Amino acid sequence: MAREYVVSVGGITPTAAAVTLVFINPGTGQSIEILRCWASQAGSPTSAQQRIQMNTQVTAFPTLTSTTPGKLKLSDPASVITGGTAGAAGTCGTNASAEGGGAKTVLINDAFNVLNGHLWVPTPPETIVMNASAASGFGYHCPVAPTPATGWSFGVIYREL
Which domain holds residue 99? Predict the structure, then answer.
């Protein structure tokens, strides 16, 4: 049976002008499939457009807040990916305070109204698969400062393959 996990936080003030909301870097021996990404805010009733991207990034990775993945099926073991602050292989984190110098390759560009939030749920042929032992990690990223600056919730659901 597939094992799915979530990396998610809420009530966050993004820490950088352009910010990686969630970064997941698969480790050796375990590929991951990105199943869902979302972002929303509760800090302002004002309508505004926000750009968002799904990308890959090679070293040097973002500086993150360590966030431990949660299990979606409580009987599953803990994810092989653990919380980390440096974007290293086999780790994940949220709300980057620095983006790192590694090149980003944008996979999907999008924009959304902050009153509605962003939700990306691909059909199975459109999921993103990050290979084990690859030189890059997956980032859910705002290329411009999120507006408003407070009250953000965001996350990524992934499957270990």
Answer: 3-10+18-160
